[in-house]
Write the structure tokens for this entry.
Amino acid sequence: MKILITGAAGFIGGHLVDRFLAEGGGVTGIDNLSLGTMRHLEKALKNPSFRFIKADLNEIASYRELLVDEVAKAPYDAVWHLAANSDISAGVADPGIDLRDTFLTTFHILQVIRELGIPRLAFASTSAVYGDRATLLEEDSGPMLPISNYGAMKLASEASISAAVESGLQQAWIFRFPNVIGPRATHGALYDFVKKLHSDPAQLPVLGNGTQQKPYLHVSELVEAMTFIVTKAQDPLNYFNIGPEGEGTTVRFIAENAVRLVSSSAEIRYGIGSKGWIGDVPRFNYSIAKLRQLGWSPQLSSDQAVVRALEELVSESSS
Ligand SMILES: NC(=O)c1ccc[n+]([C@@H]2O[C@H](COP(=O)([O-])OP(=O)(O)OC[C@H]3O[C@@H](n4cnc5c(N)ncnc54)[C@H](O)[C@@H]3O)[C@@H](O)[C@H]2O)c1
């Protein structure tokens, strides 16, 4: 297998690169390093089967020839498209960031896929496409009304991929991630709490009143689930929620465990209201029945994943 991974220097991208290289595949990674870091690719860069291209996906002319050269050596079996704007608050302040880095990167990678004749695409989507809904989020439930520009641009990306499958793309997999956590995270509540407690061990300010409750999945299980789905789900267009079982984890649980592990005397200072920030979906309940039916179930509960990821982040931050 030879694959192209966009957003390869990102948190999840780096784990995926390591996974494919460990399986003996050839991997090309593209990233503009706007949010990613070469530290995530330190191991991969020692592997002769890995090639890194620093480029903005929206500037196809800057990397087209490099990919054409690669295809001349051996064609790509698939693109795994993970590049996006993961800085949600930056996207709230300037929706143009989500347009460029979340939607247009998808639009442009589809153009590259067409030009190079790559048959398959796997795409990192999100629970944010569903919007703020009280009901169980099943893949076919609707209406899909995102409340963040990030979610809107991911939904538009899903729509473009669906259309591409009608017009030449052989096969696509859309994964709707929950909150993904684990070692090498560079953003998200767990990372923020650990960072804040290191800089001020006396207090932990929390966005919102701590009652927000969402499913958290460990990155190792996410990678397992994605590779499982790609092997087993063989429709032209496949779309799956990926998440842990159960109702998810409260922000209060995360804050209390971060304090326990980093600075047990710190005072947790909660904000007001159940929303952490504009566009935040404070509570959602994910159905993973479709994934379970395909044959994959997570081993860790959301709470277990949170505790494990906090321990990993604390140990990383002190090494
Ligand atoms: N981490 C989560 O909890 C989570 C949840 C739902 C969905 N996702 C999705 O999973 C994917 C990976 O997320 P992550 O947490 O690893 O984020 P990340 O920010 O660590 O990785 C995204 C990578 O994309 C790169 N990138 C952004 N714009 C680019 C562009 N124009 N050209 C080239 N590279 C560009 C960034 O530099 C970064 O390395 C994203 O698509 C994200 O939306 C993540």
Summary: Residues 9 and 207 are 28 Å apart (CA to CA). Residues 7, 9-13, 31-36, 56-58, 82-84, 86, 101, 105, 124, 126, 177, 179-180, 186, 188 surround nicotinamide-adenine-dinucleotide (CB under 6 Å). The chain is about 40% helix and 20% strand. The chain has a mean pLDDT of 95.
